[in-house]
Amino acid sequence: QQQVKQSPQSLIVQKGGISIINCAYENTAFDYFPWYQQFPGKGPALLIAIRPDVSEKKEGRFTISFNKSAKQFSLHIMDSQPGDSATYFCAAAANSGAGSYQLTFGKGTKLSVIP
Amino acid sequence: DAGVTQSPTHLIKTRGQHVTLRCSPISGHKSVSWYQQVLGQGPQFIFQYYEKEERGRGNFPDRFSARQFPNYSSELNVNALLLGDSALYLCASSFSAAYGYTFGSGTRLTVV
Fold it and tell me: Is B100's Cβ below 8 Å from some Cβ in A?
C-alpha cells in the first residue's frame, strides 16, 4: 500500500522555468513532510520540510505548498537551473509509537532542466 | 564535519550468502535508521535505532536484522540473500529519534 503518491514520474523544464512536483498522502497521522534531492550515486539530501500547521514554506528558490484538507503538498522550484537536474522525493513521517519516526517516501520524480 | 559514513560502498554477493553493512553516524547523532532503495523507487524503511534500542521495524523479513553499538554506529545484517535484495542500502542519522535525518551515500549491494 503506497501511502505517499508522487507525480509526475519525470519532468523536463527549460532553464529559468518553474518545476512543480506534487504529492498526496493518505495517513492523517503524518505530521512532517520533507522533500529530498538525490543525485546519481548519492544518498538523498534534505531540501526543505514543512509541518501541517503551515501552508507554505520558502527557502531560496524552493517552496513547499501544503493543503491539509486535501492531503496534498507540492514542491516548486523557481528559476530552475541545469544543476537542479536530479531525482526528487517527497516523504512523510509520523510517530509510529515507541518514539519511532519512519519516513515514507514517494516513488520519485526525475527532473531534467534543459538549457 | 564528516557526514554519515557507510561501508563498503559496493559489494557483490551470491544468493544464499550473508552480508553485513556498516554505518557511522554524524558525531553526536544518537539515532540511526536503515532504508532500502530499489532502482527507480523511493527508499523503504527497514529499521530505526535510538540509544541502542530498536525503535521501529519496517515490513521486511526476519532475514534482515540490525544493531546499534555503544558508539552509536550500526550494522545491518541480511541472511540467505535473494536476488531481490539487490538494492542501495541507505543509513540515516539524527540527533534525536525524531526528524531531520541525514543520509549517507549508501552501499550498493548486488546479489548474483
Answer: yes
